Amino acid sequence: MKSLNIGIIGLGTVGCGVYNVLRAFDEINIKKIAVKNINKKRNIENLDESLLTQDAYEIVNNPEIDVVVEVAGGINPAFELLTAAIKNKKHIVTANKELLAKKGNELFSLAKANNVVILYEAAVAGGIPIIMPIKTILCANKLTKIAAILNGTTNYILTKMAEKDLSYETALKQAQELGYAETDPTGDVEGFDAAYKIAILSTISFNKKVDINKIYREGITKITANDIKSAKELGYKIKLIAMGQVTDDGRIDVRVHPMLVAKKHLLAKVDNATNSIMLSGYPVGDLVLTGAGAGAEPTASSVVGDILVLSSGLEHSQCPVPQAVCNHTEFADQIPIGETYNEYYISINASNNPGVIGLVGTICGKNNINISTIMQKGINTDNTAEIVVITEKSKESDIQNALSDLLKSESIKKIDNLLRVMN
C-alpha cells in the first residue's frame, strides 16, 4: 500500500479507537490530530502529544496531508472544515451521519468537482459493513426495501423494558449509568440518530437523494410498560425501526418510528445495543447484516477500513474509489406519512360500558379499517377498561380519522398509544 499521511479531527471515543487501531499499520502516518482540549486525559497509551493541535485548520490546510479523518461529529465546524479540506484536494473519511444527512448534497458535489472522494462506512452502522457492499457487490441489484435497527441506545432500552418489566424512565437511567445513553439522550430516543442513518442508506440504496426534512420521525419516549406487556401477549416485541422502501408507483417511503415486530421476525431477535439491517432486492432476495453499531472498536474498524481502501487505491489512481463518487442527480418523491399503509396497534382507555367494543368496531369500519384482533384487558379501579386493537393493513390518514372519531365519544377517555406493526 502507498504510505498515506492523514490528519484526524476529533479524539473522543471513536477518535481514540481509530488512533489505537492505526498503530498496527506502518504505512499510515498520522501527521496531526485536532482536539478541543489538549490537556484532556484520553484512553491512549503513550500518545505522542506533539501531534495534538487545537486548530483544525492546521490539518485541512496542510499540503502534506492526503486524507482528513473527521470523527468529531456535529454540523459546525465540521462542515466548514471538510469544505476547506475538499477544496484543498484532500480525500475525506468521516463517521458523521448528521453532517452527511443534512449537508451531504453539498459535500459530495464539491468532492466530485475536486476529484476527491468521501468515504463514510462508519456513519450508518458502526462496525457493520453496509455502505461499500451496496455500492460494489450489490450494485447488480435493484434494492426495494430496508428495515433496520440502527440505534443501539433505544434497542437496549426497549430490550430491558421487555426483559425486566421496567418503565421507560428506569430503563433509560440504567442505559445512562452503563454509558449506552448520553446525559441528554434526545438524539437517540427521539429518533434523530436513526433518521440520519436511514436517509443515507435510502439515498445510496434507491439511487435518489432523500431529504432528511421529509422523513417522518417518532421516538420511543411514549412507549409504556403496558405497551411492552401487550405486545408480548400478542406475540410481538417493540423495536425502533428505520424503514425505507420503494412503492409500486416508484415513490419512496422513508420513516423512523417504533413498531410491534412479530417474534418470528429476524429483527425481533436483535436485542440490547446490537444493530441489524435487512435489505430486499432483485436478484439477491433478502439479506440481513447484524453486529455492533457503535463503540470505539467497531466504529474504528470501519473508519480504518476506509483509510486502508484509500491507501491501496491511491497506489493506482488519483480517484482511488470511483464507486464512492456520488452520481445521484434527482431528489426522491417521498411519501408523507398520511399516505402510507400499515397494520396498527391501538391502545384505548374507555369507560367500562356495554357496547364500547362495538363502538370501536363501528368507527373503524366507517373509516375503511378492518380489525384483526380486539381485546379488553380487565377493569381499572376507576371503572375504565384498556382495549387493545390490531388492525389489518390500513391507510395512515384513515387511522388518524378513526382516532379523531373515537375521541368524540364520551365512552372513549383517551388513546394511550398508536404503533405500527411489522409481521
Structural overview:
The chain has 14 helices and 17 strands. With 423 residues, it is an alpha/beta fold. It folds into three domains: 4-126 and 296-324, NAD(P)-binding Rossmann-like Domain (Rossmann fold, 3-Layer(aba) Sandwich); 131-292, Dihydrodipicolinate Reductase, domain 2 (2-Layer Sandwich); 339-422, 2-Layer Sandwich (Alpha-Beta Plaits), CATH 3.30.70. The chain is elongated. The model has no long low-confidence stretch (mean pLDDT 95).
Please describe the topology of this protein.
Layout: E1 4-9, H1 13-22, E2 28-34, E3 52-53, H2 57-60, E4 67-70, H3 78-87, E5 91-94, H4 97-113, E6 118-119, H5 122-125, H6 131-135, E7 142-149, H7 152-164, H8 168-177, H9 186-189, H10 192-206, E8 216-217, H11 225-234, E9 236-246, E10 252-262, E11 274-282, E12 285-292, H12 296-313, E13 341-351, H13 356-366, E14 371-379, E15 384-391, E16 394-395, H14 396-407, E17 412-422
Parallel strand pairs: 1-2, 1-4, 2-3, 4-5, 5-6, 8-10, 10-17
Antiparallel strand pairs: 7-9, 7-11, 9-10, 11-12, 13-15, 13-16, 13-17, 14-15
Helix pairs in contact: 1-12, 3-4, 4-10, 7-8, 13-14
Largest sheet composition: 11 strands, mixed
* Tally of individual domains: 3
User: End-to-end span in angstroms?
Assistant: 47 Å
Structural class assignment: alpha/beta
Poorly predicted spans: none
How would you state the average pLDDT, rounded?
Answer: 95
**Taking Cα atoms only, what radius of gyration do you get, to the nearest Å?**
24 Å
- Outline, from the CA principal axes? elongated
Identify the CATH class of the largest domain.
Answer: Alpha Beta
Beta-strand residue fraction: 25-35%
**CATH-level-2 architecture of the largest domain:** 2-Layer Sandwich
Q: Treating each run of at least 4 consecutive H or I residues as one helix, how many helices?
A: 14
- CATH H-level superfamily title of the largest domain: Dihydrodipicolinate Reductase, domain 2
**Overall strand count:** 17
Within the CATH hierarchy, at the fold level, what is the topology of the largest domain?
Dihydrodipicolinate Reductase, domain 2
Oligomer: single chain
Helix content range:
25-40%
